[in-house]
Amino acid sequence: MNEQNVIPDELRWVRGRPGDRLDENRPTVKAIGRLLKHGETDTVRKLLRRWHPRDIVELLVQLPLKRARKLFLSLPPGPAAKVIAGLNDDFRAALLEDATIDRLIKLFDSLDPEDAVDAIDELPEEVQARLLPHLRDFGTISELMTYKEDSAGGIMTRKFVVVPPDWTVDQVINEVRRHANRIKKLSAVYVVDADRRLTGYLKLRDLLLHPSERQVADIMRTDYVAVRSDMDQEEVVRITERNDLASVPVVDADGRLLGRITSDELQRVVRDEAEEDLHLLSGISPDTRPDEPVLGIVRNRLPWLLAGLVGATVSGSIVGSFQQEIAAAAILASFIPMVMSMAGNAGIQAATVAIQGLATGTIWLGDLPWRLGREVLGALINGLAAGIILAAVVLIAGPYIGIQEPALLALTAGLALAGVTLLAAVLGATIPLLLNHFGIDPAMATGIFITTGNDILAVLIFFVAATAIYL
Amino acid sequence: MNEQNVIPDELRWVRGRPGDRLDENRPTVKAIGRLLKHGETDTVRKLLRRWHPRDIVELLVQLPLKRARKLFLSLPPGPAAKVIAGLNDDFRAALLEDATIDRLIKLFDSLDPEDAVDAIDELPEEVQARLLPHLRDFGTISELMTYKEDSAGGIMTRKFVVVPPDWTVDQVINEVRRHANRIKKLSAVYVVDADRRLTGYLKLRDLLLHPSERQVADIMRTDYVAVRSDMDQEEVVRITERNDLASVPVVDADGRLLGRITSDELQRVVRDEAEEDLHLLSGISPDTRPDEPVLGIVRNRLPWLLAGLVGATVSGSIVGSFQQEIAAAAILASFIPMVMSMAGNAGIQAATVAIQGLATGTIWLGDLPWRLGREVLGALINGLAAGIILAAVVLIAGPYIGIQEPALLALTAGLALAGVTLLAAVLGATIPLLLNHFGIDPAMATGIFITTGNDILAVLIFFVAATAIYL
């Protein structure tokens, strides 16, 4: 056949095996990339016809984004839908960026409503508005979309098996059989009463262990932990981690079963929440993506840079108000970077520890006095150590670079550094806890604000110390 | 009975129900805390005798650490072991801090070897060395401890069900039944050949769906994804996420089945890896805990503060080398905070995005030219915007605060800010990718180093610009 001549030998894809997987497929990825570059999309599509969706996902992730998008857009809706369900949110959004509305309609109509909702959530709002009315499952999807994206309802799946307590094991097994192909990650069957209120659950293994004529009510487990649909996803993760659960049922205010949250969804939430903290602390908007376009770089980062600039302008004004002192001893300006750097770093260190402690639930407010005591003492030691080192450097280098009264300058710099470190650490440790107490996301308001707040304090403390001791 | 008089009504613990759980138990937590404070440990222990371990965990987490430790140390080894298996690593380590070796021996002897290994890993090395030889499962535990802590082998459990391909469904069900109580999170049965090499797997539901006399070989799934025991845990998570797996089998170099990694373990790894990145970027050692003692605050933070101080000293020296210029125009010193803040923030923003992209696998090196192009353009826009704003502020405020030649100073400050932002973003985006290319953990070497490296560049660029344009 002709096709065999067209497809080079290196295009044989090696199925995922531990360790050697990526390396063995590198030539294939390169070859397919080349074909796509030369516009041979049809050849590639033919080639992929018998591939498992998982392998196509693997290939897409390894291609340059531009070619991955080209390839993805050329896949028929069926395989494309299977591929899209296996992608992570960021990559999915990147791949869908260029898709037309018609293409999106076909794609989402081949997906389960839940998978469709997840993917639609990632689309820009104007695309959503144009797309939604055309979808086959418009009703279900709209209903699912009423849940807040980061609430238990927003991350649950409605695919689960539910049985009444008066069924027998045999009936339950038949029900599982009926749903088996439709449901991923099935680990438990839920038991509900006549009002659909959750009353218990059975693990799949319970079905294997008990005789087929036993009644559900006799063998069901009642020590279930459920979450309310309006619960924040971060709280959901905290509950599942503390109770060592792989998945968790979601109920409404009356205890009626609405859905369940699977283990892979929980894993995704853990990653997303951690990333959000990382973003906020680094001064980037939480929805920043690694492959963001230029406009995203501006929108997600400029506001934080400007916020930092405002703070720095205040620091600058403080420095400016000490112009006479600086004109009298220009060497003082050399210490601005040192005190600013220490203040910024010590503050962000303490804030990170506090924020992470709040996120993982290992900080108790009952423990606050102890915590702050430790923080103060530790910061004092760190500040004194850094202060002594800087003072020593000034004392030793002073005579060589013509510093007047090096001992006084050393005392000034050392004391200012110690004081600044102490204060920055205390503020860094307290502010996140305070914000959390008032229901504000501590990561949100920390980051750049703690850094620049401390910068301001730092130059102030330094110049006050310099005026008092050195000048 | 007397006991009823001793135990006040508020001590009734409400089992976990969605949402209202924590609030309803707050009086109980307070009352128990009070009892512990007054040394009534025996009363509390009696009270907890019938409590579910999960509720004791819940109680411990809500008590101040000091009292939680007191209570935990007073629990009998059996319940204490059950409690300890349900705790997260940090909290466990905090609780065990005061425990005697004898107490630890009793505790770990009541745990499964795997749970024991996890907890022992968190103990200080000198305690491990004294403890290990006394444990009942010394052999197994030592063997498990040979795997690197953050490798697939280090996080796997050896509790799983394995069957040969010639068994019938009925035989497999019996095997599951035999192991059911011992194994948590059982979702699949693995199929191995005579050499114990992994050849396939069955989901539990497959056992329900097929007639009991069918042979395993006929119905087993062969599209398994396994990981090698020496694979890094971060790579394991990437593979499971990409393949949408809840758990994954672990094999040795010859493909022999060694264990499996469960969904909750994967979730823990995701959290730990994200925390590690957050820590490193914030300038804290990766093993920092929110409840670290004073010595930990010094050990985990001082080295990074000093590294920052070294960089800042270089910045300070550069400022110092422009002493004459500063003496001539002290206003120049006011701009040090602005350029430093912009450089630090823009650098850390770009670095965070790059590091996160590397961690989640959404950055492809094949995409590098595009990525950098976007980053340069975005940084240029951000830098110009900030530069124009700062220049406008100088122009407007200049006449009022007696700045000489405000137009030239505005030009200097604006240009320097734009240039610094551009350079900082490019370095921030490239350095993590370069480090990753050479096999160094990018989060490790970024954080404070990018910030201070950019600080140095920032003051240099600013003073060079000032000398050229303003003076």
UniProtKB/TrEMBL annotation, chains A, B:
Keywords: CBS domain, Cell membrane, Magnesium, Membrane, Metal-binding, Transmembrane, Transmembrane helix, Transport
Signal as UniProt keyword: no
InterPro entries named among the record's database cross-references: CBS_dom, CBS_dom_sf, Mg_transptr_MgtE_intracell_dom, MgtE_N_sf, MgtE_transporter, SLC41_membr_dom, SLC41_membr_dom_sf
One Pfam family, short name: CBS
UniProt-listed SUPFAM superfamilies: CBS-domain pair, MgtE membrane domain-like, MgtE N-terminal domain-like
Keyword set includes Hydrolase: no
Subcellular location per the Swiss-Prot or TrEMBL entry: Cell membrane; Membrane
All residue ranges annotated as the CBS domain in the record: 156-219, 220-276
Record GO terms (molecular function): magnesium ion transmembrane transporter activity; metal ion binding
PROSITE patterns on file: CBS
Top-rank taxon: Bacteria
GO CC entries: plasma membrane
Record's bilayer topology term: Multi-pass membrane protein
Function description: Acts as a magnesium transporter.
Protein name: Magnesium transporter MgtE
Native species: Thiohalocapsa marina
